Amino acid sequence: xxxxxxxxxxxxxxxxxxxxxxxxxxxxxxxxxxxxxxxxxxxxxxxxxxxxxxxxxxxxxxxxxxxxxxxxxxxxxxxxxxxxxxxxxxxxxxxxxxxxxxxxxxxxxxxxxxxxxxxxxxxxxxxxxxxxxxxxx
Length: 137
Hints:
Layout: H1 4-24, H2 29-34, H3 36-63, H4 74-81, H5 87-105, H6 112-121, H7 123-134
């Protein structure tokens, strides 16, 4: 059974991370990319925000008996199959997971302007997923 207390705690952490990320939105691109503290902070809190989303999703998948999760990308897939998100949301979430993996593992030299653009344009996606999980509270 999906536990509202687990969902609530994870969503509260997501709110905390989003508040920090919103503060970082106030900088211009030049101010952001030139300052390693701002950039490093954004990287870390974007990763933590996506991890929070993955944790909430994984909890729902596991507790609602929606299938197995071997990879992070299985989470949005299972939720779409269950009708909890649509295919557009699934694709968005999978892109977030890809960003998270790049941020964590630093596979490639990350272009700071891309992180800035994500910060400016995509925090609403995380907000949207909060609404998906609010139904379990």
